[in-house]
């Protein structure tokens, strides 16, 4: 083989080797950026990012922003902060089941309203969540198997979200403002009980009791004031009777005009 050919072949070989090394370094760099136990894949044509059973204690960063399906289930995530998924505008499905979530901040799902159609928060430690945390969210939401406190706030939440099919029976009262509801399915309870109306009635009664208390205090003060004046007037009249008649008539006239 001519020398020029050997040089060209060597150059092409070196170039291909360099490209392979760069590609390998890029792949390794991308893998290193993901949390341990997390990896991207493609399922049914949708870009998926899986972090199931990855021992996570927070929502990971550096999730590819073109992710369509995100699995964060079976971890130890305790709460969802504001804007936790802000950089995932194309997210369609979000699985947060089997974590230790006790709190969801208002705005945690900001930016997901347009595309998200499935949100799984089942099997966590949610006791009470404001309806504002799910404002404008159109996704089907699974809230089953959480230790819910059945009260007006939960009632407002259930009326705000669109529950996933078959999940409503799993929303059970672990505790309640009314003891007889503990252990019962929440939708069954609110069929007969309006927690928010009960709260309003309780508030109205408290206001009436407070107003009655103030009214009673005012009446008591007026009665005391009148009786005190009567007593003072009686003592003054007795004093006048003890005076000589001329001076007494003068002071009686003064007293009567003052009382009138």
List the helices and strands and how they pair.
Elements: H1 3-33, E1 39-43, E2 46-50, E3 69-71, E4 79-80, E5 93-95, E6 103-104, E7 118-120, E8 140-142, E9 148-150, H2 152-160, E10 162-163, E11 173-176, H3 186-190, H4 195-241, H5 245-259
Parallel strand pairs: 2-3, 3-5, 4-6, 5-7, 7-8, 8-10, 9-11
Antiparallel strand pairs: 1-2
Helix pairs in contact: 2-4, 4-5
Molecular structure report:
Helix content is 41%, strand content 13%. A hairpin with a 2-residue loop joins strand 1 and strand 2. The strands form 3 sheets. A 7-stranded mixed β-sheet has the order 1-2-3-5-7-8-10, covered by helices on one side. Strands 4-6 form a two-stranded parallel sheet. With 260 residues, the protein is α/β, with parallel strands linked by helices. It is elongated.
- Strand arrangement in the largest pleated sheet: 1-2-3-5-7-8-10
Could you list the spans in which at least 5 consecutive residues all have pLDDT below 50? 21-32, 199-205, 255-260
**SS-based class:** alpha/beta
Shape: elongated
Put simply, the count of helices is: 5
Rg estimate, integer Å: 38 Å
Order of helices and strands: HEEEEEEEEEHEEHHH
């Amino acid at each position: 083989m001519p020398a020029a050919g050997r040089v060209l072949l060597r150059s092409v070989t070196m170039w291909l080797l360099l490209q392979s090394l760069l590609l390998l370094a890029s792949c390794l760099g991308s893998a290193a950026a993901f949390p341990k136990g997390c990896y991207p894949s493609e399922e049914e044509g949708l870009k998926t990012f899986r972090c199931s059973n990855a021992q996570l204690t927070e929502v990971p960063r550096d999730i590819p922003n073109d992710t369509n399906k995100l699995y964060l289930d079976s971890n130890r995530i305790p709460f969802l902060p504001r804007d936790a998924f802000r950089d995932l505008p194309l997210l369609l499905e979000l699985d947060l089941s089997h974590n230790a979530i006790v709190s969801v901040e208002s705005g945690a799902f900001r930016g997901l309203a347009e595309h998200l159609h499935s949100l799984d928060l089942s099997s966590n430690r949610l006791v009470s969540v404001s309806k504002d945390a799910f404002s404008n969210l159109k996704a089907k939401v699974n809230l089953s198997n959480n230790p819910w406190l059945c009260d007006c706030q939960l009632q407002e939440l259930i009326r705000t979200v669109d529950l996933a099919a078959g999940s409503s029976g799993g929303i059970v009262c672990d505790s309640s403002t009314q003891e007889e509801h503990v252990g019962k399915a929440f939708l069954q309870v609110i069929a007969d009980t309006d927690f928010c109306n009960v709260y309003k009635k309780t508030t109205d009664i408290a206001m009436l009791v407070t107003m009655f208390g103030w009214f009673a205090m005012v009446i008591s003060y007026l009665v005391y004031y009148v009786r005190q004046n009567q007593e003072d007037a009686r003592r003054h009249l007795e004093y006048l009777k003890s005076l000589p008649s001329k001076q007494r008539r003068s002071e009686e006239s003064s007293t009567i005009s003052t009382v009138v």
